[in-house]
Amino acid sequence: FRLHRSAAEEPHILLECDSSVLDSIQKHLKLYKIRRKVTITPCPDLSLWAVIPGEQPGDASSLPKSAEQALLLTPDPRAAVMGWRLIAKEGANLSEIIPGSHVGDVQDYHRHRYKQGIPEGVKDLPPGVALPLESNLAFMNGISFTKGCYIGQELTARTHHMGVIRKRLLPVRFPEPLPSPGVPEGSEILTESGKPAGKFRAGGGELGIALLRLAHVNEPLCIKLGGDRVKLSATTPEWWPKAAAK
């Protein structure tokens, strides 16, 4: 998030990241400072909130004006169905910032994003395994096709413009909540005839996200757990571009 308001101001960028990889991200960013006067500092005094919309996604103008008390309140850049990102001082009173809001559990948030097929963090996007286009990052403002010279740029741009992407992350649903500990991450997903269809990434309860071959999305799918076969179904998110699932 860009915190400075004009080019005349000293640039200040606030980077949201998976807290489990905070140290490795700092080390990675410092590799690219290359004699520049750049300060990279964690912000433990800030708290991050997801403001999830009701039945219909709205715009920031529909939020109460008292939301200006927040350090940052902006539409989630990934998809309108994810509402807004709110960043405030640790311990801030959320009911004062957004009167009438209900503070839910973090699992409510994860259930919402799994239902919408929105990946987040290293469980959904394992480093060295997840590919940007297969992870739908081009749909979520996660890839630049105009910025020059970044690692993997040529392959990513060529694949995007050719339009040949055979696997994508998709929301999946099981008929009922699975018994603990649930489905192991990386479990193979099969078609009814036993053909490999993809791999389960992560989830909670009866919802999850999986990397699936688009050719098998509309087929009956299953995962082998022990000696049983657990059925699951996949859907194409409504917020995707219309031609994306073809």
Automatic annotation (TrEMBL):
UniProt-listed InterPro entries: CAF17_C, TrmE/GcvT-like, YgfZ/GCV_T_CS, YgfZ/GcvT
Gene3D superfamilies on file: Probable tRNA modification gtpase trme, domain 1 (3.30.1360.120)
TM spans (from-to): none
Domain CAF17 C-terminal span(s) in chain numbering: 166-242
Record's keyword terms, sorted: Mitochondrion, Transferase, Transit peptide
SUPFAM superfamilies: Folate-binding domain (SSF103025)
Localization in the cell: Mitochondrion
Annotated GO MF terms: transferase activity
A biological process term (GO) from this entry: iron-sulfur cluster assembly
Major place of residence: mitochondrion
A Gene Ontology cellular-component term: mitochondrial matrix
Superkingdom of this protein's organism: Eukaryota
NCBIfam families assigned to the protein according to its UniProt record, in alphabetical order: ygfZ_signature
Protein name as catalogued: CAF17 transferase
